Amino acid sequence: MSSDERTSRRELALLFLRLGFTTFGGPAAHIAMMEDEVVTRRGWLSREEFIDLLGATKLIPGFNSTEMAIHIGRARAGLPGLLVAGCCFIAPAVFIVAVAAWAYVQYGSLPQAEALLYGVKPVVSAIVLQALLRLGLGALKTPLLVLASLAAAALALAGTDELIVLFGIGGAAAIAGLLKGGRPGANLLLAGAFPPIPSALGIGAAAGASAYSQSVLFLVFLEVGSVLFGSGYVLMAFLRRDLVERLGWLSEAQLLDAVAVGQVTLGPVFSTATFIGYILDGPSGAALATAGIFLPAFVFVAASAPLIPRLRRSRFFGAALDGVNAASLALMAVVTWQLGRASLVDGATIILFVASAILLIAFRANSTWLILGAGAAGL
Questions:
Q1: CB distance 315 to 180 below 8 Å
Q2: Which of 32, 34, 83, 348 has a CA between 20 and 30 Å from the CA of residue 214?
Q3: The model's pTM
Q4: Number of domains the chain is built from
Q5: Domain that holds residue 367
Q6: In whole angstroms, what is the distance from residue 49 CA to residue 280 CA?
Q7: Measured between alpha carbons, how far is 335 from 117 in angstroms, rounded to an integer?
């Protein structure tokens, strides 16, 4: 190992630790900060290379900004750099959320903490609504995709499993891409590299048990990290299905609390897994849930990076991705409605929700300040 490699890894660690401690505002803000650092300031990647990597993150499951950090680390220093950049970007959020989870377990039942979350929950619902509207403008590009999203919402409201909705709508869109003359070669190769994870993990069978199990906790979050396309907000739909409805380990209120903590703290929304793992089983649960949800991103980036040139030329996989994104937006819409029923409990929470939605959508207010302000209002 050369000194250049050692220096590069040290630089990667310092950069992504700093980004991990300062990235508020969601994945778009995270990626904008990375572009400024690695393209404009350091010249580690050209703008074209950066855009290629950004496009690649949308072809695999996971949280886009975390995968961008992992991709940049691999491009800069190979597989060791992949691990360094990814872990350093994730670590600050995981640490802060674990501390918040400890405080929640210790003091969450106190009236002051309940009042704080009473104000925050309606704002979280407004933030998810804003993300849904913003993402919908970019993802629902054709009438066919709008119809696909409506069909996915209808299936979800009818009780269809979220994974069936995602893969069904994505598969239908891929077939439509083939009928338009897509080139399937690279996509069939990708399908062989990433087989359907849910059937391999057997989550459906495991989820039939209600007693807490560390192995099931790890597998639930491994499943989510392995199949979650779209925004990190779609995470709520999966967690609600498995941990609230099937297993009964969390209440609706606890899920909203977990999402609120993920919003008010910095870094990737997936650190919500750390919070949930901690309140279920302390530090060991936090470690298992965190490892489960983030591990697939490292594997998928390492495996898919060599395929990027071929995937960029494939209309087939692009069509499948469009379908999956349309279905993801539908799941976001359904879970927004479901969680809104749990958070909008009286006139004050409705006013907070409406005011936050107006500030976010019309004036592009900073979501972090809104959450802090709503928490103060709740107190």
A1: yes
A2: 83
A3: 0.67
A4: 1
A5: 3-378
A6: 42
A7: 19
